[in-house]
């Protein structure tokens, strides 16, 4: 496994630049409010290069992306749009090009650190491991 140990459950701890980022990617104001300081729980199941990445939102809504490193997969954005992407692994980080932003995820000091970049705005979300 090496530096690829993503499996686990992570609870939202904090973020930076949320408002600027979600406005850049065109989320509606009701979605923006819903997502602010949202205690999202991210659950990652990993089997080698195969991943199932589920986000559990308060109120029971979930989004699941299933992908294999270096293979094209059907994915869904924060705003619920469907698209195709090839997820890559670069220096232990998972990297995905979403339609209007670039998303990376890495495990850093036992935490899940996700960074999304859209037109120069960098949104960072940190989640602590709970399982």
Number of domains: 1
Structural class: mainly beta
What is the percentage of strand-forming residues? over 45%
CATH topology: Lipocalin
Q: Uncertain segments of ≥5 residues (pLDDT<50)?
A: none
Radius of gyration: 14 Å
Largest sheet: 9 strands, antiparallel
**Ends apart, CA distance between termini:** 18 Å
CATH homologous superfamily, by name?
Answer: Calycin beta-barrel core domain
CATH domain class: Mainly Beta
Instruction: Give the oligomeric state of the chains in this entry, treating copies of one chain as homo and distinct chains as hetero.
Output: single chain
Task: Return the string of H and E elements.
Answer: EHHEEEEEEEEEE
Helical content stands at 10-25%
Strand order in space, largest sheet: 4-3-2-1-11-10-9-8-7
**CATH architect. name:** Beta Barrel
Protein name: FABP6 protein
Main location: cytoplasm
Domain Cytosolic fatty-acid binding proteins: 8-25
Subcellular location: Cytoplasm
Describe the protein in words.
This protein is globular. The chain has a single domain (8-129), classed as Calycin beta-barrel core domain (Lipocalin), CATH 2.40.128.20. The chain contains 2 helices and 11 strands. 11% of the residues lie in helices and 55% in strands. The protein has 131 residues and is mainly beta. The longest helix is centred in the N-terminal third of the chain and has 7 residues, at 18-24. It has helices at 18-24, 29-35; strands at residues 8-16, 41-47, 50-56, 62-68, 72-76, 82-86, 88-90, 93-97, 102-108, 111-118, 121-129. The mean pLDDT is 90. The two termini are 18 Å apart. The strands form 2 sheets. It has a 9-stranded antiparallel beta sheet with strand order 4-3-2-1-11-10-9-8-7. A hairpin with a 2-residue loop joins strand 7 and strand 8. It comes from Ardeotis kori. Belongs to the calycin superfamily. Fatty-acid binding protein (FABP) family. Residues 8-25 form the Cytosolic fatty-acid binding proteins domain. It is found in: Cytoplasm. One of its GO terms (molecular function) is lipid binding.
């Amino acid at each position: 496994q090496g530096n690829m140990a993503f499996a686990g459950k992570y609870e939202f701890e904090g973020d930076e630049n949320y408002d600027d980022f979600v406005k850049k990617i065109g989320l509606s104001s009701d979605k923006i409010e819903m997502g602010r300081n949202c205690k999202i729980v991210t659950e990652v199941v990993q089997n080698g290069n195969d991943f199932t990445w589920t986000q559990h939102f308060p109120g029971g809504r979930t989004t699941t992306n299933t992908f294999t490193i270096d293979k094209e997969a059907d994915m869904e954005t924060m705003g619920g749009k469907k698209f195709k992407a090839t997820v890559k692994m670069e220096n232990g980080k998972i990297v995905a090009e979403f339609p209007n932003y670039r998303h990376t995820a890495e495990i850093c000091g036992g935490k899940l650190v996700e960074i999304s970049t859209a037109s120069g705005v960098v949104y960072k979300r940190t989640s602590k491991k709970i399982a």
